[in-house]
Amino acid sequence: MSDLLEEYGWTERFASAFAEHASEGRVPGRVVLEHTHIYRVATLAGETLARVSGRLRHRAQTRPDFPAVGDWVVLEPVENGDARIHAVLPRFSRFSRRAAGDATEEQVIAANIDTVFLIGGLDGDFNPRRIERYLVVAWESGATPVVVLNKADLVEDAARHLADVQAVAPGVDVHAVSAHRPESLDVLRRYLDTGRTAALLGSSGVGKSTIVNRLVGHDLLRTQDVRITDSRGRHTSTARQMVLLGTGGVLIDTPGMRELQLWESGDSMGEAFADIEELAASCRFRDCRHTGEPGCTVRSAVASGDLAKTRLDSFHKLAVEREHQARQLDARALLEDKRRSKVMGKALQKHLKNKGAT
Ligand SMILES: Nc1nc2c(ncn2[C@@H]2O[C@H](COP(=O)(O)OP(=O)(O)OP(=O)(O)O)[C@@H](O)[C@H]2O)c(=O)[nH]1
Ligand SMILES: [Mg+2]
Ligand SMILES: [Zn+2]
Predict the structure, then answer these.
(1) Whose CA is nearest to atom 30 of ligand 1?
(2) How remote is the CA of residue 177 from the centroid of ligand 2, in Å?
(3) pTM of the predicted model, to two decimals?
């Protein structure tokens, strides 16, 4: 297809998925911004506003069935200049969290991303434990996480912080940068070849929007000073938003999240804790939980100082949280089943009654 779509990340895979929906007047587009129930979508003919079709809304069973920023969608232009979204093309990756207010509902934050930039601030916000947590979710997404420590201009010992993070992020690229020294951001461009998409995630005030602006080359997004007293951000960005870089690549800026609730789907603990996984291969019991079992290589490594105790603590904490969520999801599925069989039972009764009446 055209070069512009490819700049936005269009590939053969999307083209063949689109072919199944292709019909007169339908075009592909990528969701740039999500308002409530209205989406801004980039197409070959420029950006357009769009709503989901009645049929898509009807068929959507859960929240992730609706479009999210980064999704490729099948669009049909309608009379008043807006468009209708008929389908969401299958995603190759998605970054999700637990929806606020409903622990059992998944909320897709960004779709079809190649790289997740986990941004931390080297000022007061800096916290390896939080990065560890973000990494678990990032691996779940199917995208490759990269840790970016911003505001290197504010600290003397960026190298030490870099080492601290590398210790909790085995196999992950970690970079120290400063948005106030734009040339330091050039390392990020290697993840932003034409058609590649990166999403920026991290707490409010760490400088996500500032980094996007510096990479774009002008002040496209609003940014704001952090409060001096506690170096917390002010939640300046309020929406997820996709930006096409002139130099190639696509960025998705996101609002800072107060806390990131894990959304469990696959087995990403093994990737986020590759160091523990490797040690665990030699534990005596295959299902060793490293909580005091005999012959536990992981605990021996902590005892000998080869593995930080804080690292094992994080592992246990996150493992407990995952089990808890899995139980909640099971409970929800059970309720759904009950509700369904109740509805079915009622329908059946009604049917039998009508039959009996005739
Ligand atoms: N000293 C210094 N300040 C920075 C750097 N990057 C960003 N800032 C400042 O940090 C403040 C917050 O930046 P934003 O880009 O708004 O932060 P954000 O992560 O987008 O925050 P939310 O939109 O609230 O999630 C602004 O005052 C920026 O100028 C940096 O590398 N060094
Ligand atoms: Mg922002
Ligand atoms: Zn063990």
Answers:
(1) 151
(2) 17
(3) 0.80
